[in-house]
Amino acid sequence: MTDALRPRPSVNLDNGFIFEALNDGRLVIQKCDGCAELRHPPVPMCPSCHSLDWHGEEMSGRGTLFSYVVLHHPVVPPFRPGYVVALVELEEGARVVMPLEDVARDDIEIGMALSVAPERMDDELTLPVARVRAEVPA
Ligand SMILES: [Zn+2]
């Protein structure tokens, strides 16, 4: 039996740059060239200054847990019971939905420090994944 693949994201002209960057090992967010606002999910025109000019800004990979849900039902492969979906607030300010891995459910706290890095799910798909960020002693 082959392992089930994750559902494919709907890639289009507005968000394709994100998945291309993830495949290159980088996490990028759309940044307006007119007013420097970060936008996620990406859109063609800046809602703040109406500029059509933007670029993919590379993020630091540091963030905090803004919110999360734990999936219990239905359990569809390749997901496992207790799969955690996090809304991570990147330190640059954008919020991105992604899996939260390697943390016991009782240890999850809103505001906890997270590291975000692209991880290959299969031969064709790379997604950002959040893990607990180890505090570095000063
Ligand atoms: Zn703008």
UniProtKB/TrEMBL annotation:
InterPro entries assigned to the protein according to its UniProt record, in alphabetical order: ChsH2_C, ChsH2_Znr, NA-bd_OB-fold, Thioester_dehydratase-like
Q: Which Pfam families match?
A: OB_ChsH2_C (PF01796), zf-ChsH2 (PF12172)
Domain ChsH2 C-terminal OB-fold, first and last residues per copy: 57-116
ChsH2 rubredoxin-like zinc ribbon domain location, by residue?
19-54
Per its UniProt record, what SUPFAM superfamilies does this chain match?
Answer: Nucleic acid-binding proteins
PANTHER family hit by this protein? BLR3430 PROTEIN
> What is the protein name for this chain?
OB-fold domain-containing protein
Organism field: Gordonia liuliyuniae
